[in-house]
Structures are given as C-alpha cells and as structure tokens.
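Project outcomes to date are best conveyed with an example. Our students and postdoctoral researchers have been running inverse folding experiments weekly, and each run begins with a structure described purely in tokens. The record below, which covers 361 residues, was selected by the lab manager from last quarter's runs and is presented without edits.
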C-alpha cells in the first residue's frame, strides 16, 4: 500500500511563492488595464466578470473546499443586493453605509439556509437550497400589494417584478464624472482582491483544513473532533458575507436590482465557471471566468448557437479535464517536476550498454 505523505515545508513554500508571483502579476495587470482599454463596453464587461469571479470564488469555497453542494449562491447574492437597495430606498441611507448591513443580512439569510441543511448531504442539500432560491424568486415576482406610494406610483415592498432602481450609487459619477466607470472598476477590483486574499487565508488556515477534511472523509473528520454542524454554518456565513457584499456593490454599480439575478441561467453560469476553471483550486474561479466570459463575448453574434457553444465548452471541459484548467495545469507541472527529479532513463540505458560484460565461466 502506498503511503500518503503530507506536503513538505519546501513544497508549501514554493506554492506560496507561486501564488504571490501570480498575485503580483494580476495586480500589475489590473492597474494597467484602464489605461489599455478605451472601450467603455469592454471595461463594463470586465467589471461584470469581476462580479462573476467573486461569486464563483465563494461558491468554490463552499463546494470545492468544503463539499457542500449548495445552489443558493445567487439567492444570497440577490439578498445582499436587495437589502442594500432597500436600506437606501426606504431609509434614505447612503450606499456605502448600506453595503455592510446588506452583507450581514445575507449572512443571516445564509445561516437560516445552513440550519435547514444541517442534517442533509449531497443532492438533498442541492435540492433544498434550489427550492429556497426559487421560493425567494416567486415571492418577489408575485409581490403585487402596494406597500408605499412614491409620488403617484405604488411600490411593492420587494419591488415586485420591476425591482429597485435609482436608489443611489458609489459616488463615482459625481466625483469622476465621465470617468466614473474607471472608478467603479477600481472599487470592484479591490473587492475581488480582498475576497481572494481572505479566501486564501481561510483555505490555508486550520479552519480550511477542517473544511477539506469534512469534504474528503466526514466520518474521520468527526472522529478527530471536527464539529460538522459548526463548520457547515461557519463556511455558509463566510461565503455569504462576500457574496452578499458583492450583491450590494452590483446593485450600486448598476443602480438597479431585480429578480433577474435569481434566474437559473445565472446560477448555471457560476457553476460552469468553477467547473471549467477547476473545482477546489484557488485560481480556478478566476481562470474559468476569463475563459467563459471571453467565449460568451466572442459568440455574442451567434444567436441561438451562443448557448450551444458554451454548453460544448463545458461538456468538453468535464470530459477532457475533470479537474478543470487549473487542475490540468497543476498535473502538468507536477509531472515535469517528477521527470526532472527522476534519473534520466537514457543515461541509465547507456551506462548499462557501456559497462563491460562479465567474464564467462
């Protein structure tokens, strides 16, 4: 039986150095990007991609690192966006003052979801969380009762099928005027960077080790003293804070939030991002976002073949690269490292050929 050895300190150091180098390159690229992109449309799509990457990174934390197959991620995102919009709309708060309370509201919502899933595993968690998300969608779109009169217009408590609009923004329009989109890009890029840094710290911490243990071998993890219920609620809450915060920034960036963010296509796109990039890999959500958003943009004029093309990319990724792009690249790097570390087979063969033959009897 092959013995499984823990990762050595030197290999962990190399991994940390690699992650640091990638982070520095991405930071430099993010700073240079506004000076290289003249099109407002492209910059707007990049901002949207950063939202996708943020949501995907937190779903990856929930499923890829913790093994909880929740389908309520877009519901938590929508809850954060709606809570931020409602604080601004009903109480007249500034958007910046409403962002953190909106994110905390998303955390409370996620804890309710987590409590409902405590005694469930696998597909049952997926079905229950999907049912919660769809119920939230139906409650919003069927809300037709008048809650408050805004001028001569009657508004529903949740905004109904219309949602909320023009409740405030991030302040960049007044501050930067024509360059407000660059300001919003910088803010969302910082949000994504903070999310990734915090996620990295969680994954590398003892808490992250407990999450991975519960995913890989729940029975052994519980036997070693890991409290499954506490860990599950904790990862739900951590993931929900940044997802809800991203929802608030999304609402503020577009100055609108509606039930469309709860659509099944949005949820499937987030899951596809993680699958293509690599489930359970740190950089997978970012790589998957780049690949799928770029592919979606290139096929924008393809009409009905746009969805078919995206489906084909996802199917090929699942069949040919079960570990995703990042996982495949990691396997290639490990293979090259083992090949360099092992003796050269050609040299070994030549030594055998050149060695003198033993004397006959």
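After processing, the design step wrote out the following sequence:
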């Amino acid at each position: 039986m092959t013995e499984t050895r823990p990762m050595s300190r030197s290999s962990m150091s190399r991994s940390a150095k690699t992650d640091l180098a990638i982070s520095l390159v991405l930071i430099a690229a993010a700073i240079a990007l506004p000076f290289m992109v003249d099109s407002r449309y492209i910059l707007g799509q990049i901002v949207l991609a950063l939202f996708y990457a943020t949501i995907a990174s937190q779903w990856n934390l929930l499923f890829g690192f913790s093994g909880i197959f929740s389908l309520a991620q877009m519901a938590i995102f929508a809850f954060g966006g709606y809570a931020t919009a409602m604080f601004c709309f009903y109480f007249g708060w500034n958007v910046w003052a409403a962002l953190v309370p909106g994110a905390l509201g998303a955390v409370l919502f996620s804890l309710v979801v987590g409590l409902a899933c405590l005694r469930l595993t696998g597909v049952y968690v997926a079905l229950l969380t999907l049912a919660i998300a769809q119920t939230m969608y139906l409650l919003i779109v069927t809300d037709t009762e008048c809650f408050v009169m805004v001028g001569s217009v009657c508004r529903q408590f949740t905004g109904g099928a219309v949602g909320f609009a023009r409740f405030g923004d991030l302040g960049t329009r007044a501050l930067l005027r024509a360059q407000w989109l660059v300001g919003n890009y910088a803010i969302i890029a910082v949000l994504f960077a903070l999310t990734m840094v915090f996620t990295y710290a969680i994954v590398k911490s003892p808490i992250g080790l407990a999450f991975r243990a519960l995913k890989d071998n729940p029975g052994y993890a519980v036997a070693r003293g890991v409290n499954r219920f506490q860990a599950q609620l904790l990862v739900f809450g951590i993931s929900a804070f940044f997802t809800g915060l991203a929802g608030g920034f999304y609402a503020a960036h577009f100055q609108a939030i509606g039930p469309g963010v709860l659509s099944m296509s949005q949820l499937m796109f987030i899951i596809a991002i993680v699958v293509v990039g690599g489930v359970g890999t740190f950089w997978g959500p970012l790589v998957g976002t780049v690949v799928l958003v770029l592919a979606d943009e290139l096929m924008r004029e393809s009409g009905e073949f746009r969805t078919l093309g995206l489906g084909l990319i996802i199917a090929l990724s699942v069949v040919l690269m079960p570990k995703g792009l990042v996982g495949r690249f990691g396997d290639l790097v490990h293979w090259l490292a083992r090949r360099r570390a092992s003796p050269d087979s050609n040299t070994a063969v030549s030594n055998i050929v050149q060695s003198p033959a033993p004397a006959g009897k």
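The CA atoms of residues 54 and 192 lie 6 Å apart. Residues 263-341 form one domain. The training component of this project remains on track.
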